Amino acid sequence: MTIPAPEARRPSSGRGAARERRHGGPTARRPHPGAATTSSRRDDTASHTVPVSAVPKGLVRHGCDRRTSRRALRRALAGSVAAAAVVGVTIVAGVSQAATPNLVDNPGLENGLTGWFAAQPFMIERVRPGHRGSYAVRLANTGGTTRTGALNDLVNTVEATKAGHTYQARAYVRSDVAGRTVAVRVMEYKGTTRRGEAAKDLALPDTGWHRVSLRYTAATDGASLDFNVLGRALPAGGSIVVDSLKLVDEGDGGTAVPAPAATATASPAPSATATAGPTASAAPAPTPTGTATTSASAAPSAPRSPAPGPSTTTPGGDPPPAGWTLAWADEFDDGALDPARWTAQHLSTFGDGNSELACLMNRPENVFERGGTLTIRARKETTPVTCGSSDARFPDGRSYTSGMLRTTASWTYGRFEMRAKLPTSPGDSKGLWPAFWMRPAAGGTGELDILEAIGSSPGGNTAQRIHQTIWYDYAGTHPKETFTALTAFDPSAGFHTYAVEWDPGQIRWYVDGRLTWSRTTSSTAWLEPAFSKPFFIRLNLAVGGSWPGSPDSATSFPADYAIDYVRVYQR
Predict the structure, then answer these.
(1) Where are the beta strands (DSSP E) in 65-204?
(2) Of residues 20, 159, 369, 447, which has the active-site annotation?
(3) pLDDT at 407 exceeding the cut of 60
(4) Residue 443 pLDDT
(5) Residue 452 annotated as catalytic
(6) Where are the domains of the chain?
(7) Would you state the CATH architecture of domain 325-570?
(8) pLDDT digit string, tens, across residues 80-122
(9) Catalytic residue among 369, 452, 481, 501, which?
(10) How many Å apart are CA 120 and CA 48, to the nearest integer?
């Protein structure tokens, strides 16, 4: 297949000196049988396209009686989302996940002990602080002998399964003493017949919080799923504390479908230096060609294991990508942005270097966590918002607001991964510009764009394009190098993973676990000088700007950039 020539790039806006440039139906549940409870950018572009395929893809049930009950309405998914970006790599949809709200009612114990119970001789009580603040629930053995106890959902969390769908369950747990064994467990019931079960145990090494998670594939349609957290062999008086419970339907998975081979044509980037321009090869260690036309292989590398849902190297969690260890993560499960992890811009005109239109705000209307998802929301305001005390461009206020975050931590090298749904839906998202990118903690040279996407007007062609870019600086010392991955799925219709692996002398980009592009010191002579120091992560949703243009009458507001997690791995 012939990869189309890359589209024209946005004009240079010189983002750099002035700013580090850039952004950025209610359902009744089936009760358990029984009753009773105890309670920017720039020009100088070299573009590439490459073919790629994507890989989207023991206790028994308590017999205690329970009061018949119906669960509250399901938590709404935070965010309408949208399509994305620009590149010439075809990525075949695998696990193109639809909305994945947390199905658990009262997952953070905000509503007391509603929805949870324990069988005698165990009791539950709400305590604080919970996982990163707020509340949690303590499960304690009040009997006289060692027993295994369960924190149990009063009404089965999933009312009607879909055969073949994968359900991911997890909780954060700590114990009163080190060495306790805990577990999460999911059991599938069709009527009173158990059709399947899965449990994941974790030996707690200390008294701190630890994540325990599992995935379970439903055997039948229309069954219910019972969700428990277990304290194994708790002695008399022993207890565990549980918080941030989550169960999501990840869909029916999918298998990798290889993309056909393709020929890519890339325009050479202008440069006054002897540095070779980037090549179109997606191999891990491409070599410069010095020409504008190259051939791309159909299989640039063996795929990384995909991460369609939350995973972690925490004991008991899902395995990390091969060769990596989890160093930092935010799963956005605690109901509020964690100030120890993130700094949010407020009343900021940071995007003015790109001619962006929004006032960046740190307020619940624009940045919030809900149902295990971080949402950055762009709004069209009915009353203009005054953006700080010296907004020369819009002294009478701005008609758009949005958000931008940066991590408080920074890293030199690692794998940086996000799972997100983009707000760039086809035809009604012109002027929207979500990004997942990195900048040096101390400023200076280097910018690493893991993902950028721009929205479209009716008939536009940007919905399935993911942009991946590196910059040396914003003064044109070296031309930026950019790549556009063309996906076979709509990035606004479901959650997908976007990642970069940054090693000394090499950077590799992935979508849904498939390699899309790479740069090395062989292809990019300035790579090491620009990328050998600590970088922090930025997340933002820009409105307007020299690249995406301004919103039009078809652009839908509010527009949500929904992020399931951000994780940092290191070797």
Answers:
(1) 84-85, 116-117, 122-127, 136-141, 147-153, 166-175, 181-190, 193-203
(2) 447
(3) yes
(4) 95
(5) yes
(6) 102-249, 325-570
(7) Sandwich (2.60)
(8) 333 333 334 445 444 333 346 889 988 888 889 999 999 999 9
(9) 452
(10) 64
